[in-house]
Specification:
The protein has helices spanning about 5-20, 25-65, 70-80, 80-100, 140-145, 150-155, 165-185, 200-205, 235-240, 295-315, 360-365, 390-400, 410-415; strands at about 120-125, 150, 165, 190, 200, 220, 225-230, 245, 255-260, 280-290, 320, 335-340, 345-355, 365-370, 375-380, 380-390, 405-410, 420-425. A hairpin with a 4-residue loop joins strand 12 and strand 13 (about 345-355). The protein has 2 domains: about 25-100, Serine-tRNA synthetase, tRNA binding domain (Helix Hairpins); about 115-425, BirA Bifunctional Protein, domain 2 (2-Layer Sandwich). The mean pLDDT is about 90. An 8-stranded mixed sheet has the order 1-11-12-13-16-10-9-4. It is elongated, with a radius of gyration of 27 Å. With about 425 residues, the chain is α+β, with helices and mostly antiparallel strands. Helix 5 packs across helix 12 (about 390-400) and helix 7 (about 165-185) packs across helix 12. It binds one RNA strand of 91 nucleotides through helix 2 and helix 3.
Length: about 425
RNA sequence: GGAGAGAUGGCCGAGCGGCUUAAGGCGCACGCUUGGAAAGCGUGUAUACGUUAACAGCGUAUCGAGGGUUCGAAUCCCUCUCUCUCCGCCA
């Protein structure tokens, strides 16, 4: 959530900044809402104050044995409007809250201005795309050729955008996740966590998926309540610090978490319909950090580097791009995408997205820490895929395929497959 | 799913309609004391929102959550959530 103080003090500047990401801030609506809030709140608090004073007076008078009849009548009259006012305050605060909740995060000053992915800025490339001396197949053909990837069966069981993996590919998929967890815990200092895959609406609100992006989620009704399948481990993991005040010495918090992710992909019909690139269910190893504000941009660089390490160890060519203002997720202040080389598509495709949310999520979650002066302050939250397991599998199948239809196992993963060097048709 | 017991500040724990602006203790911070420490003594010790230049002061709210009764609710009533104990079922 945006800082309301910022809107009050710098409305024009914030409005201009938000416009760079294609968001039109309704200035007048805000000013009106604020004026209304101020009026109702002042009046309500004044009446509450008077109510408290009357109650105290009556109590004291009663203790002395005085007749409190007239006082009570007076209090009753004075309090007559309070109930309505309190309800009105509640309503106006909810409207204000609703207004604020859908405003995206103003981008960090270092973020390039732009409208579409075309305006993203490449930062660096690593690795040389391999040149094939045979026609490179895409991962679907590689996987189906091995008899270990089956979309038709998945469609029968569930529907479109699911997959069934068997044998060597299922095992490779598992190995990838294990490998990532091990690297991040052993080499990068993250603590592994296991979390719920169903979360309540409050958690979804905290990280910013709700109220605006409900159509992207799978919702599970539960009586009057709603549960949601997590679209990323970011949601449960970041919400660990919701409504918490973390002692300074525990920062930064660094969590790594392997979960399935569930996305409805509403509105992406016809996009990446082939293969495992865009599924309703996929596995991901997620990195989450909670830091002091001063440390968050350094942490973003580090976290991005941690994700890159995986690709380097797997010897998969990639590039890093800075998302432009128009292409970033609403909650993010700055995002780096890491894109892996997919030979069959002859292009780089997103395999990780690393973002600094600054205090945007923390404000929604009331995730705070106690600073050196002992004062409570909002933390900064960050996360990044480290990496998307399904897409990593895709990258390996495509980049490590051999002419005979087999797939070589990247050397970093062999230890996880009992030394196996190659996946061949059984 | 059934029966019962609970939920109070960082922690323990009293309060069960008005001198509670939540007792008392522990912890923590600072001060006094001391050669230094402990003990002792004293002072302080929540969060959110508003107002504001102010993380100064003042106001409002918060005793699991929501609603109700009342001039006044931690305290009474209703609904819900969660925790614990026992039974049932279960990977």
């Amino acid at each position: 959530m945006i800082d309301i103080q910022l809107l009050r003090s710098n409305l024009d500047a914030v409005s201009a900044r938000l416009a760079t990401r294609g968001y039109r801030l309704e200035r007048d609506a805000f000013l009106e809402l604020e004026a209304e809030r101020k009026r109702v709140q002042s009046e309500t608090q004044a009446l509450q104050s008077s109510r408290n004073a009357y109650a105290k007076k009556i109590g004291q008078a009663k203790a002395k044995g005085e007749d409190v009849g007239p006082l009570m009548a007076e209090a009753s009259a004075a309090n007559a409007r309070l109930g309505d006012l309190e309800k009105a305050l509640e309503r106006v605060q909810q409207r204000l809250q609703g207004f604020l909740a859908v405003i995206p995060n103003p981008p960090h000053e270092s973020v390039p201005t732009g409208k579409s992915p075309d305006d993203n800025v490449e930062q660096r490339r690593w690795g040389m795309p391999r040149s094939f001396d045979f026609p490179a197949k895409d991962h679907v053909d590689v996987g189906e050729g091995l008899g270990m990837l089956d979309f038709a069966t998945a469609t029968k069981i569930a529907g479109a955008r699911f997959s069934v993996m068997t044998g060597g590919i299922a095992r490779l998929h598992r190995a990838i996740a294990q490998f990532m967890l091990d690297v991040h815990t052993r080499e990068h200092g993250y603590t592994e966590v296991y979390v719920p895959y169903l979360v309540n609406a409050q958690s979804m609100y905290g990280t910013g998926q709700l109220p605006k992006f409900e159509q992207d989620l799978f919702m599970v009704p539960r009586g009057e309540e709603k549960w949601y399948l997590i679209p990323t481990a970011e949601v449960p993991v970041t919400n660990i610090v919701r409504d918490e005040i973390v002692p300074l010495e525990r920062l930064p918090l660094k969590f790594v978490c392997h979960t399935p992710c569930f996305r409805s992909e509403a509105g992406s019909y016809g996009k990446d319909t082939r293969g495992m690139i865009r599924q309703h269910q996929f596995d991901k190893v997620e990195l989450v950090q909670v830091t002091q504000p001063e440390a968050s941009y350094r942490a973003l660089e580090e976290l991005t580097g941690h994700a890159e390490t995986i690709l380097k160890k797997l010897e998969l060519p990639y590039r890093v791009v800075t998302l432009c203002t128009g292409d970033m997720g609403a909650a993010s202040a700055k995002t780096y995408d890491i894109e892996v080389w997919l030979p069959a598509q002859n292009t780089y495709r997103e395999i990780s997205s690393c973002s600094n949310f600054e205090a945007y999520q923390a404000r929604r979650m009331q995730a705070r820490f106690r600073n050196a002066k002992g004062k409570v302050e909002l933390a900064h939250t960050l996360n990044g895929s480290g990496l998307a397991v399904g897409r990593t599998l895709v990258a390996i199948l495509e980049n490590y395929q051999n002419q005979d239809g087999s797939v070589s196992v990247p050397s970093a993963l062999r230890a996880y497959l009992n030394g196996q060097e190659k996946i061949s048709r059984a």
